Amino acid sequence: MIWQSIGLSLGLIGLIGILIILPAFLFDVFWRWQIVLLVLSYLIFFSSTIWRSLKYGKFSDRSQDEQTKSLLGRLALVIAILGFGSTHWLAIYDFSRLQSLENHLVNYTLNTIAILLIIIAIVLNQVAVRSLGRFFDRLVIKSEHKLLTTGIYSYIQHPIYTSYIVLFGSFCLLLHSLLSIGLLAVVCLVWFSNRISIEEKMLSQQFGDEYQAYQQKTKKLLPFVY
User: To 5 degrees, how large is the angle CA 70–CA 181–CA 165?
Assistant: First the structure.
């Protein structure tokens, strides 16, 4: 359990290094406060995975993930890896070329909104992961699997996916990169639509009418909207 958590911690550092630190150094913006804030935010955000590992033990093997068992799922995974990586690098590149906005009010407003969204993403992720507990895992049905319909899950069915979308979107917004926001939208559409479709099929087969009734009274990603 400890060794897995150490491995996850090293993996998290490596991921942040590839997504943020390396391009920030290459484009000479590493010590800008936005970059420092994003590195710290990602560390806090993804710490929920380490918490889950310490408390509940090993995650299921990747080969058990239903998404990796289908050709479309594997294709979506490749698109996600390349797409999310490109989104982060593109945003940092745009940021490195950005001249100070003449309208300081717009600059301040965008930064404030982005920071608020980062906070929302972190809180949402931490709450959702702790609510799921040991069921926060790959796309597998575990023994004694329970359908969670309380707390944040009484409003939306996939709050963890929502937290990822909000975090990545606020990353692009804080760096004022419109191009990366557009790319992010496409990648999220491909990745999460495929993953949600597979997950809903699994849960429908496992819980039947109970899950269908839950779907009828909740939204997928955004309360009261979608």
Answer: 55
